[in-house]
Amino acid sequence: MRQAKKTTIIDVAKLAGVSVSTVSVVINNKDKFVRQDLKEKILTAIRALNYSPNSIARSLKKQETKTIGLIVTNITSPVTPTMVRTIQRIGYDQGIDTIIIATEENKQVEISAVNNFVSKMLDGLIICPIESDDYQHLAYAHQQAGIPIVSIERNLPPELGIPSVSTTNFETSYQAVQHLIVHGRRRIALIAMPVFGSNTRDRINGYKRATEEKGLYDPSLVFQTDYVGSNAYTIAIDLIQNHKVDAIFAISQSIALGAYKAAMDCNQKIPNDIALIGYDSVDWMDAIPSPITRIKQPLEEIATVSANMLLQQRGNPDTVLNNVIIPSELLIKRSCGC
C-alpha cells in the first residue's frame, strides 16, 4: 500500500489561500497582524487537513536559509558592537548572514522577533532574553520548530533545553565591592538597572553579599535607574549630597559615567572623597584624570563561544550542550583608591 502523503504547511496555505509565512504567524499565536477572516480560513484549513505543529517542525527543519538571528537588548550600548561584530564575522566565514534585532528590554518586541524568525525559517538564533514567566515563544522555536538557540549573558530555565554563555556577574561584583571595603569605604552605594535578567540580579546580589558580610548593607543606599542609566547622574547627586556616600558601585558603564559627572559637579575628588567602580571597559574610562576601576566582561569570548555552539547545534541537531561561564576581570585603576 502507498503511504499517505503527509500534510505540509504549503498544503494549509494553498487551501486557505494565503502565504506560508502567514500560516506560520497564526500558528505562532502572532495574530494581531493578521485579519480575522484570514485567521479563520487558516484555522479551518488546519482542522480540515488535520495539520499539527509537529508537521511544522519537520517542515522547517528541512529548510536551510543560511541566515541566523541575533537578538540584543540595547543596540546603543558601546559594549554591543564587539559581540555583534564577532558573531557576524564567524557567521560570514561559514557563508551565513546575520539579522539583528534590538528589543530595548521590551518583551513584546522579543516575542515578535522570535516568531518572525520562525516564520522566516532561520537556521539559528542567538538571544539575550528578557526575564519572564512565559517563554512559550522560545520553547516553540527550539523544541517544535527545531531552531538551534543559544542564550547569551542571561540564563534560561533548564527545562527549555537552551544552552547559555554567560560570565561571573555575582563573583566579580562581590570581589569589586570587597575591594572597596578593603580601602576603608563604609558607605558604599549601589546604582543598578532594572532586573531584566540573571546578569543584573547577580551583580546586585554580589554587592549585597559583600556589604552584608561586613555589616555595611544599607537599603537606603541602593537605587535603580532605567536600563540605559539616563537618570544615574541625578541619583548620584542625591547620594553624594544627602546620603554622604564614600563609594559608588555602578553596574553599567553608562551608570558609571553619570556617577562620575555627578562627583565632578559636586566638587568631590575621585578617589579621595568618593571611590567609584563601574562595569564594562570603554574608552572614556581611561581618558579622565582618575581612570575608572571596572569589571571587564569577556564580550568577544562570549560571542565566539555562543556562535560556535550555535553552529555545532546547526550541524548536529541532537547535540546536547552545557551552559558555559567565562570569567570577568576586575581591572584595577585609580578610581577605587589604588
Q: How many domains, as an integer?
A: 3
Question: What do we call the CATH homologous superfamily of the largest domain?
Answer: Response regulator
Strand content: 15-25%
Main sheet summary: 6 strands, parallel
Structure description:
With 338 residues, this protein is an alpha/beta fold. It is 43% helix and 15% strand. It has 3 domains: 9-60, Orthogonal Bundle (434 Repressor (Amino-terminal Domain)); 64-167 and 299-328, Rossmann fold (3-Layer(aba) Sandwich); 169-297, Rossmann fold, CATH 3.40.50.2300. The chain has helices at residues 9-16, 20-27, 36-49, 53-61, 80-93, 107-119, 136-144, 169-182, 198-213, 232-242, 253-265, 299-315, and strands at residues 67-72, 97-102, 124-127, 149-152, 164-167, 188-192, 222-224, 247-250, 275-279, 293-296, 324-326, 329-331. Helix 1 crosses helix 2 (20-27) and helix 1 crosses helix 3. The protein is elongated and about 75 Å long.
Layout: helices, strands, pairs:
Layout: H1 9-16, H2 20-27, H3 36-49, H4 53-61, E1 67-72, H5 80-93, E2 97-102, H6 107-119, E3 124-127, H7 136-144, E4 149-152, E5 164-167, H8 169-182, E6 188-192, H9 198-213, E7 222-224, H10 232-242, E8 247-250, H11 253-265, E9 275-279, E10 293-296, H12 299-315, E11 324-326, E12 329-331
Parallel strand pairs: 1-2, 1-3, 3-4, 4-5, 5-11, 6-7, 6-8, 8-9, 9-10
Antiparallel strand pairs: 10-12
